[in-house]
Amino acid sequence: MSSIPNETVSVIIPVYNDEAYIGQTIDSVLAQTYRDLEIIVVDDASTDNTPRLVQAYGEAVRYFRLDHNEGAAVARNTGLSLASGRYVAFLDSDDCWLPTKIEKQLACFKNQPTGFCYTAFERMNPDGRVVKTNLPFRHQIDYRFLLKNTLIATSTVLIDRNRLGDFRMPLMRSGQDYATWLQLLRKTEGVTEVAQGVEEVLVRYRVGKKSLSSNKWSSIGQVWSIQTRQERIPFLQAAFNTFCFCMHALKKQ
Q1: What is the dihedral of CA 68, 72, 73, 76, to 10 degrees?
Q2: Are residues 130 and 123 in contact, defined by beta-carbon separation less than 8 angstroms?
Q3: Cβ atoms within 10 A of the Cβ of 221, count?
Q4: 187: domain range?
Q5: What is the largest CA-CA distance in the chain?
Q6: CATH number, domain at 56?
Q7: Please, which residues have CB within 8 angstroms of residue 157's CB and are 6 or more apart in sequence?
Q8: Of 227, 152, 159, 153, the residue nearest 193 (C-alpha)
Q9: Is residue 122 part of a domain?
Q10: What is the value of pTM for the model shown?
Q11: H helices within the chain, ranges in order?
């Protein structure tokens, strides 16, 4: 596995018709205390004012536009192909980071033997008002735990590619983030790799999005499909895992 000889964090932001929030999202990256950042915005063929708003940032942001609307997986994989940094972080186009997010995650890498770090987060409404804090948190998440529950929000994730290697997200319209975390942890299970959490709210997640993490009940079929088709979990075990997933989702409501 080749090593990437820099300490740059490539921030991948897929966006589609999000003119109301994309500026706040980019500003939250530019406000980071860690400065060696590469901001990559992949526009999934927006039809609103998003392109003009992003391009107004000039050289501070690398802007790439897809010819057709392909979905978040294609947009994120395009960002991964463009990224030059040793580290990659994902940020949804309507979420925001707190200023020390990247700095504290890089410190986590130095203190823990891991290449996968996530943080605690809080929920905010469309107007930006925090509506729920003290969400469930776990200091470490391994493959087996993730099969039954996910506490990892996409916008909290930071990956060290020198440790975990190059990767791409499965090409599915929803749930590709959950499928990717399983893929990365399965790849290294038994080699001491676990996802390490930073127990501090460093991300604000905007509620109301149609994603696996915010709309679990309508995504149970997607969880089942990922486990049986991608992970090839036996039927009975996948059924038990999915049941546990439902129970955990109910507790979070």
Answers
A1: 100
A2: yes
A3: 11
A4: 9-209
A5: 53
A6: 3.90.550.10
A7: 89, 90, 116, 117, 118, 177, 181
A8: 159
A9: yes
A10: 0.91
A11: 22-30, 50-55, 72-82, 101-111, 143-148, 161-164, 176-188, 220-225, 235-252
Phi, psi of 44, rounded to the nearest 5 degrees: -85, 55
Please say whether the beta carbons of 71 and 173 come within 8 A: yes
With residues binned 3-state (H G I as helix, E B as strand, rest as coil), the percentages for the chain, rounded to 5, are: 40, 20, 40
Each residue's pLDDT tens digit, 210-245: 444 445 556 778 888 899 988 889 989 988 988 888
How does pLDDT run across 76-125, given as a tens digit for each residue? 999 999 999 999 999 999 999 999 999 999 999 998 889 999 999 999 99
Q: Are 159 and 87 in contact (CB under 8 A)?
A: yes
Measured CA to CA, the distance from residue 161 to residue 154 in angstroms comes to 17
Query: Do the Cβ atoms of 246 and 252 come closer than 8 Å?
Result: no
246 located within any domain:
no
Helix (H), strand (E) counts: the chain: 9, 10
Per-residue tokens: 77 = 């994989």
Domain count, the chain: 1
The per-residue pLDDT for 253 is 57
Residue 82 lies in a domain: yes
